[in-house]
Specification:
It is a single chain. The protein is an all-alpha fold and 240 residues long. Helices cover 79% and strands 0% of the residues. It is built from 7 helices and no strands. Helix 5 packs antiparallel against helix 6.
Length: 240
């Protein structure tokens, strides 16, 4: 009898442990998604993507309620999440390029790009689970990809301009070349890509011309210096 009771208790402990693990997992999903939604307030995304992220939160809350109905305030949190979802359902326009404003410093830019990458990761996760239509996924993922591209290119251009002002032509050229390579990596160029590439190629040509001019001047000065040294070495000595 004691053996049976012990086995039953072990099974209960195992079930409770599994429940705790699952609840903790879903809480992480909620925290992660809420953090991204908060950061997304500074990123131009449409209602459709916000709806997908909010749906992710609601699904996680429902799983928690199913696994452990006794979790504090779970019912009220489900109701609140459902209401937020309803407010987003009214106007699910897809994300589209709007006024793009790059953050003011490099640290903020890094966080911006990380947030966009994370959104792409969460979007793909929901698509893989069958919660997002393939057409919606394609549109939103392509938009986030282009948003990430813009952030990278604009950052490189900003660094290139800073290098030019500091007369660091080599560093400026590297930044511009990286930006052009990023644009070239896109198989379906849009208006932004075509326009930026034209601007960058023109800027790169100006930098290369300046570097050639500078190198020519350095060679001329070096030869002049060598000739002066030779003239001094072989010139007739003055007699005193």
């Amino acid at each position: 009898m004691a053996i049976i009771v012990n086995a039953v208790q072990q099974h209960r402990n195992k079930v409770e442990a599994e429940k705790r693990v699952e609840v903790a997992k879903q809480k992480n999903v909620i925290d992660e998604t809420e953090e991204i939604l908060l950061a997304a307030e500074h990123i131009p995304i449409g209602q459709q993507l916000k709806f997908i992220l909010q749906q992710r939160i609601l699904n996680a809350l429902k799983i928690i309620a199913q696994v452990n109905p006794g979790v504090m305030d779970i019912r009220s949190r489900i109701e609140s999440a459902a209401n937020k979802l309803k407010s987003l359902a009214g106007g699910q326009e897809a994300s589209s390029p709007g006024a793009f404003t790059l953050p003011s410093n490099d640290k903020q830019v890094v966080q911006y790009i990380k947030c966009v990458k994370k959104m792409r990761s969460l979007l793909r996760s929901e698509y893989t689970k069958g919660r997002v239509d393939s057409g919606v996924f394609t549109v939103e993922d392509k938009y986030l990809e282009r948003l990430q591209l813009r952030a990278n290119v604009e950052t490189l251009m900003r660094r290139g301009d800073a290098s030019l002002k500091a007369q660091q032509l080599g560093s400026a050229r590297q930044c511009i070349e990286k930006a052009i390579a990023a644009l070239d990596s896109q198989s379906q160029p849009d208006e932004y890509i075509l326009q930026r590439k034209q601007e960058l190629e023109q800027q790169l040509k100006q930098i290369q011309d300046s570097l050639r001019t500078a190198n020519t001047e350095d060679v001329r000065k070096r030869k002049e210096s060598e000739r002066n040294e030779l003239d001094e070495l072989f010139s007739e000595k003055k007699k005193w």
